[in-house]
Write a structure and sequence with these properties.
A: alpha+beta, Nucleoside Triphosphate Pyrophosphohydrolase, two-stranded antiparallel sheet, 25% helix, B: mainly alpha, flat
């Protein structure tokens, strides 16, 4: 009887760096709820936050837009205003904060909130510089550089490498020889990764238990071990092709049979 | 707003820790009491509540539809997630039971309890916008102590 061939593969993922993109439906619903909440909000107690007669109170009062009060012999087409504490109780209250000198116009589009990194670097020493968020879309997204770890920030990326034998994209996979058996599947996979990609990589193995098993037609049993990359870089020593891909991109690149086995392990 | 008389009744037992002399003012309240009145007025609903929301029939139906759609959406999402977890559990179970048949030694190691296992501190929680340095590339492994 021949011993069965066991392979240990590493599902190496880069966890998201920014929060996931909000789908259009969720965005619309949250906006609706926010508007409802604002309509049902109590009036802002200005007298509590701003002491009477101070500069802050004057600036705040100046920035507000006050509704027109009710007046006798005046016809209001949208109904009689009902003012209490300077707020029309029929509608939401808009609180406008007075502008500061170093305030910048915040763009309403949330997807790209920043300018290029080069111009930001110039004024980093200036403490009074305006606060500006970095862009959620990086230059590697624009270049579509699939070997970069700094692409698709809201998504989980997985490391795939190209097999030189059959030109197929798979997770990095390593054979378990008999003298290695005492190390366990997870250590074999992690060591194998360092053999092909250099040891300047910091990973965290999720568990020593395999997450899935792929049974190949040629009698190979491939066990998948999950792991996260924390720091460093996958830098192949033998010029292997590799890519950091999201779930959809993996579906396009791997064979359907392979994808159906790993589909449930990948994060959306 | 809270009436000043009610406030006096509420806080009559509150004694200031320091005796301070204020300008005599026959009309207004003691500044300490005044502060308490304004603090209470923040919490009380008087004159701060908006008008009741009165929806016409059509708007009400719209609101109902929106809420129903949201609950369906949430339910589908939760169910999908549960299904995924179930699938992941099944695949793990299948892999481990197969490993037991193939190699009992590897099975033993795969099921060893990892005491004191924690998430590494270097793992980042996702934020709304990326940091200035997105990824740390200059990692090198710790040198073994001689």
């Amino acid at each position: 009887m021949t011993t069965p061939v066991i392979r240990s593969s590493l599902v190496l993922s880069r966890i998201p760096i920014v929060t996931p993109d909000v789908p259009a439906f969720e965005k619309a619903f949250y906006q609706y709820q926010e508007q409802l909440e604002r309509r049902l909000m109590w009036t802002f107690p200005k007298w509590y936050y701003f002491k009477k007669g101070t500069v802050a109170e004057r600036e705040f009062s100046k920035a507000q837009k006050y509704p027109i009060p009710n007046h006798r012999n005046v016809w209001f087409p949208k109904g009689v205003p009902d003012l209490k504490h300077g707020r029309d109780r029929r509608f939401k209250q808009d609180i406008i904060l007075p502008k500061k000198n170093n305030d910048v116009e915040v763009s309403t589009t949330t997807d790209d909130g920043g300018e290029s990194a080069a111009s930001e670097l110039q004024n980093l020493d200036d403490i009074g510089r305006p606060i500006k968020a970095n862009s959620r879309i990086t230059i590697f997204d624009e270049k579509n550089d699939q070997t970069s770890l700094e692409r698709k920030l809201p998504r989980t990326l997985y490391l795939l490498i190209k097999n030189n034998n059959n030109n197929e994209w798979t997770f990095p996979s390593f054979e378990v020889s008999n003298d290695q058996i005492n190390k366990g599947l997870h250590n074999i996979a992690e060591e194998g990764l360092r053999n092909i990609g250099g040891d300047k990589i910091n990973t965290w193995t999720v568990s020593n238990t395999p997450a899935a098993l792929i049974k190949h037609n040629n009698g190979i049993n491939e066990f998948l071990i999950k792991s996260h990359i924390i720091a460093g870089k996958f830098n192949p020593t033998n010029k292997n092709e590799y890519k950091w891909l999201t779930k959809e991109e993996i579906q396009d690149i791997v064979s359907d049979e392979y994808y159906s086995k790993i589909n449930h392990l990948l994060s959306q | 707003m809270y009436t000043s008389r009610a406030a006096i009744r509420v806080v009559s037992h509150v004694k200031p820790t320091q005796q301070v002399r204020y300008k005599r003012d026959k009309t207004g309240l003691n500044p300490q009491l005044e502060r308490i009145v304004s603090q209470l007025s923040v919490m009380s609903a008087g004159r701060k509540q908006p008008r009741l929301l009165k929806l016409c029939n059509e708007d009400y139906v719209k609101h109902k539809t929106v809420m129903k759609a949201w609950s369906h959406y949430r339910k589908a999402k939760i169910q999908e997630n549960e299904k995924l977890l179930q699938k992941q559990y099944e695949s793990m179970k299948e892999a481990v039971s197969e490993l037991q048949n193939l190699s009992p030694e590897l099975f033993e190691i795969a099921n060893e309890h990892q005491y004191g296992k924690r998430f590494p501190l270097e793992l980042r929680v996702p934020t709304e916008y990326p940091p200035r340095q997105i990824w740390f590339y200059d990692y090198f492994p710790k040198q073994e102590a001689k």
